[in-house]
Every structure is written in structure tokens, then in C-alpha cells.
Amino acid sequence: MSDAALELFLERGYDKVTVAEIAAAADTAVTTVFAHFPAGKEALILDDSGEREASLAAAVRGRPAGSSALDALHASFAARAPFATNLPEEYQRRMDLVMGTPALCAYARRVWVACTDTLAALLAEAAGRAEADDSLRVLARYVLETPDLASSCPDPQAALAAAFAHLKRGWPGL
């Protein structure tokens, strides 16, 4: 279903494709599309079944010795669209669609921000704390908003680096 949706979106534009057309292209029923993607057609492109939370955990928990959690998160974001420049063509096409479609951009931001509690808990773990406090929840939200904000700058990689430099100054040791 996701592949059919992507091809239709790329061919005709996201706003010009209906869920019924996606279902027909995928040779399935509309109810089946909504059963697998209850969040709607945005989820056909951006549903990751926990991939975002897993990537945050991998970045924080799998960071090299001596590397801060914020350095690891910066490196993780820098290796992803829209910051990385060496992405596979299929992934790049999907990200170009997302970045060029306001509804998909907004949905992508919402699913990242939904990881706030998970990232706050990971930051607490990295700081050796039993649980996240308000400061770590704020930091988590800032971190998760950073890619969206930096990606709209003339030099996204530089903006991402500057944002993380500021975050490190505000939360030294993380």
C-alpha cells in the first residue's frame, strides 16, 4: 500500500490522490487501508512502526564512549534527511515529497514530537537519573523540534550544528 501511495503521490501530487485511489492501486479495500493506517494517508508515507523511537534509543544508548547524548543525537539527525546528502534514491524521493508537501511536513513534525517522553527518558538514563524531570522534557522537545527548524534554513547542516551547540551549552554534560 505504501509503495502504491508513494507512486501516486509522486505522479499526481499528494493533495490530488484519494485513499480510494490508493486502495485501488494496491488492489485492496479502503477499509483495509484505514485498518493498517488509521492515521490517514500521511501515515502511508511516514508510518514507521516505532522506527523513530528506536533510532533515538540507538543514538543515545549506542553512542561511542566519551560522546555525549546530544553529540550522538546531532550525529544521528545529520545522517538523516533532509541533512544527509548521500541517501538512497528511493528514500530521497520520499523525503523530497515530504518536504514539499505541507500536510506531510506537519505530520512528520507531529510524529517526531510524539517521541518527547521517550527521548526525555533516554536523556535521564544518559544523565544517570532515575526519571526525566521538567528540564529533560524541555530538552527532549527542543531536540525533536530542531530538525524541522534547521531544515528550513539556507544551510540546514550549519543550522543543525548551531542548534546543537546551543543545546549543549544549556545542558552541559548531556
TrEMBL record:
Residues 1-55 form the HTH tetR-type domain. Residues 18-37 bind DNA. InterPro entries: Homeodomain-like_sf (IPR009057), HTH-type_TetR-like_transc_reg (IPR050109), HTH_TetR (IPR001647), MftR_C (IPR041347). The keyword Secreted does not apply. Pfam families: TetR_C_14, TetR_N. Keywords: DNA-binding, Transcription, Transcription regulation. It comes from the Bacteria. The keyword RNA-binding does not apply. This is Transcriptional regulator. It comes from Streptomyces varsoviensis.
